[in-house]
């Protein structure tokens, strides 16, 4: 499964610093080499995750440290799944 999320937060730059600090943990539940973080503006962002293992992602999302980071930045995501578009 591939996952895209759009989110708003108090400060995208501050959230990005926290994202970079915990990014090594993503290797437990997705292909870390393909993760994408994009700043839309000061309060909005987009993230892409590839080859996500849903049960492992759920376990990571439930961790107190993950929840604390989300609360610290008032991080509110909307999640979507997607697949490659094969036109040929």
Question: Biggest sheet, in brief?
Answer: 4 strands, antiparallel
Task: Enumerate how many helices there are, as a single number.
Answer: 3
Mean of pLDDT = 97
What are the secondary-structure elements, in order, as H or E? EHEEHHE
Beta strand count: 4
* Poorly predicted regions: none
CATH class: Alpha Beta
Percent of sequence in beta strands: 25-35%
Tell me the strand order in the biggest sheet.
Answer: 2-3-1-4
Q: Give the helix level as a range of percent.
A: 25-40%
Distance between the termini: 21 Å
Tell me the CATH topology. Alpha-Beta Plaits
| Radius of gyration, whole Å | 13 Å
Structural classification: alpha+beta
The name of the CATH architecture is: 2-Layer Sandwich
Number of domains: 1
Tell the overall outline: globular
Characterization of the model:
There is one protein chain. With 88 residues, this protein is of the alpha+beta class. It has a single domain, classed as Alpha-Beta Plaits (2-Layer Sandwich). The chain is built from three helices and four strands; from the N terminus they run E-H-E-E-H-H-E. Strands 2-3-1-4 form a four-stranded antiparallel sheet, with helices on one face. Strand 2 and strand 3 form a beta hairpin. The model has no long low-confidence stretch (mean pLDDT 97).
